[in-house]
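Summary of Year 1 activities. Much of the first year was spent building the evaluation harness for sequence design. The harness presents a backbone, in tokenized form, and records the residue chosen at every position. We chose the following record to illustrate the format because it has been used consistently in internal testing since the harness was completed.
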């Protein structure tokens, strides 16, 4: 028997008449939590790359802009370009949803390199110092992924394929048939499980001594979890399946992330350019 759920109001609360949506709240909480945790990671005595308070404030600005702009442009380019070409102002309507992890991933990497280049660190190369920061982000990023998937579920976005499983969900007045709650599957795998694994690898192994190793492992594990969850997720209506045997855009982009992860992890152990 399916799980019956009344639709959840996408607006969490209002401030002076301004609606604050769960989607925006998820990003705010993720960025604030990530900021303080990164501050802790970079202030430890064994920190691979210590950052001052000013540098942390500067990095937050770079990272937020890179993630949001990259995530939105990734969705526009990868998932719904024809629509946005006809409705360009909708690109800025973030409250309607539509963010791509893969775009945010690229945006975060680009702005991290830009931040390091502008800081002129005395020790280490731009590539090496960038990956020291990206290794920390690899540990903390699942927090944002988890919160984002909860917001997706509240917004009834990216719901899964039809199912007769007891895990199937029906939103009253919104869905006629039970569907896999795929955002919750991604919350569990890309969020909770991935965060647990990355924290254990950071604190219980010497992987962080191999600059770039944690970044590479994050990419590989994320891709595996995402490809697994794509088996239950309904492809975007405007794209559908890319092949007759079920390849989706999410799988394709995740395979690219996995390839990047393998290359970075290999270089981390061979100490080439990292």
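For this record, the design step produced the sequence shown next.
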């Amino acid at each position: 028997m399916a799980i019956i759920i009344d639709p959840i109001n996408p607006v969490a609360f209002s401030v002076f008449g301004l609606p604050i949506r769960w989607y925006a709240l998820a990003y705010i909480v993720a960025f604030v939590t990530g900021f303080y945790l990164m501050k802790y990671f970079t202030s430890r005595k064994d920190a691979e790359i210590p950052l001052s308070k000013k540098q942390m404030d500067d990095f937050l600005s770079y990272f937020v802009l890179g993630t949001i702009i990259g995530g939105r442009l990734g969705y526009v380019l990868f998932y719904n370009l024809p629509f946005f070409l006809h409705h360009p102002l909708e690109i800025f309507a973030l409250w309607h949803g539509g963010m791509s992890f893969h775009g945010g991933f690229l945006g975060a990497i680009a702005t991290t390199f830009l931040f390091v280049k502008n800081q002129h660190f005395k020790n280490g190369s731009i590539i090496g110092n960038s990956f020291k920061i990206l290794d920390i982000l690899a540990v903390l990023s699942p927090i944002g992924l988890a919160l984002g998937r909860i917001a997706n579920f509240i917004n009834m976005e990216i719901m899964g394929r039809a199912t007769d499983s007891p895990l199937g969900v029906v939103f009253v007045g919104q869905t006629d048939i039970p569907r896999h709650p795929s955002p919750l599957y991604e919350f569990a795998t890309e969020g909770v499980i991935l965060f647990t694994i990355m924290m254990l690898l950071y604190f219980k192994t010497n992987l962080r001594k191999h600059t770039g190793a944690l970044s590479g492992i994050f990419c590989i594990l994320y891709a595996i979890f995402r490809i697994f969850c794509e088996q239950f997720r309904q492809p975007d209506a405007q794209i559908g399946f890319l092949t007759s045997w079920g390849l989706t855009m999410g799988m394709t982009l995740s395979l690219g992330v996995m390839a990047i992860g393998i290359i970075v992890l290999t270089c981390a152990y061979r100490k080439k350019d990292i």
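The two ends are 52 Å apart (CA to CA). Quantitative recovery figures across the full test set are reported in Table 2.
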